[in-house]
Every structure is written in structure tokens, then in C-alpha cells.
Amino acid sequence: MIAYVNGILESIEEGNAVVDVxxxxxxxxxxxxxxxxxxxxxxAVKLYTYTNVKExxxxxxxxxxxxxxxxxxMLITVNGIGPKGGLSILSVMTPDDLRFAILAGxxxxxxxxxxxxxxxxxxxxLELRDKLKVTEDELLxxxxxxxxxAGGSFETDGINPARDEAVAALVALGYxxxxxxxxxxxxxxxxxxxxxxxxxxxxxxxxxxx
Length: 210
Hints:
DNA polymerase, domain 1; 3 domains; alpha+beta; five-stranded mixed beta barrel; CATH 2.40.50.140
């Protein structure tokens, strides 16, 4: 298993980069979004890699962050999603967009990736949703899961379910619980009717987080 390659970018073309590591050139498959963020030829680059081993091939898939790599590994656990499918999705969606789409059950956004059909997109949201989100019980109790994800506790009064669900989803995405609550409250002040639609509220609150 090769955890990463750290060297000089020798060449790059659509879907592939060659990284020179102490005189050895590694062919690394990359997504379109990774390609757009790569340094110039001759510059240093570090790609976190997943090694795909088959009887007739030994292939590396590389990412500029561990976050993208971890999401890629999660995607390819879904039946029907191979490494190329995972790269396809990460070529059109940022890690945050991907998490949001899965948590919100937004299979339509996922199906925009080349080679990802409606049924496959629905399978992704179905199989990965629980893996991404902290369980409701953990969030409401401020348990270990919530503490690890949010760095604090999450409290709810149960008066506004949409608000509570939006905050919980932001926490599950890795945002601090306090910042999540502030973002949701800010949206509700400007757009009170959003409090009746969890998905709409979450989308607006997510914009406030940037």
C-alpha cells in the first residue's frame, strides 16, 4: 500500500499525473477537480493515494487532501461504484457538496457525474447516509460521537424540528455546533419560512458557513 507520493510534477493530462519521486515516475489517476488545483510542471506536489490492485494492473488514484481520499474510499464501498466512478463524482463535486448531497438524499446532484445513473446515485445516498451523519441520539445527548465531530454538545428544545435537523446535519458535516446554530438562526431571521423546510434551511445555512 502506497499512502502518498511526494515529489515533482513531471507531467499532467486529463485524468493522469506523473510524479517524479527520487527518479521514479509514478502514474497517478486524478479527478478533474484535482487536476484544476495541481501545481505547475516542475513544482513539488504531494498526492494521498489509494492503491487498486488487480491481477493485471497496479493503479494509483491520488488526491490533494486526505479528506478527498477518505470520501473516495467511502464511495467505492458502494456496489456498482468502482475507482473510476468515485473519481467521476469527485470531479464534479467538492467534498462538502458531496457530503451535503448524501445527507440531504440529493441523488439528482450525484447523477450529474459522468457514468453515474439515477439508480446508482440513489444507492450512494442510501448506503452512505448513515456512515456520514452522527446519529440523532448522539447529537441530542451530546455523546462521544457529537463531541468528536463538533467539538462540543448540541442541545435542542424540540420546538422547531427543521432547525434542529439542519443544525444536526451541519454538525455531521464537521462544523462546530455553536457556529452551526448561529448560521441557522441567521437564516431564520432573514428567511423565517425556511424553518418549514429542512433541506432549504440547510442549504441556506451552509452558505453562511463560508
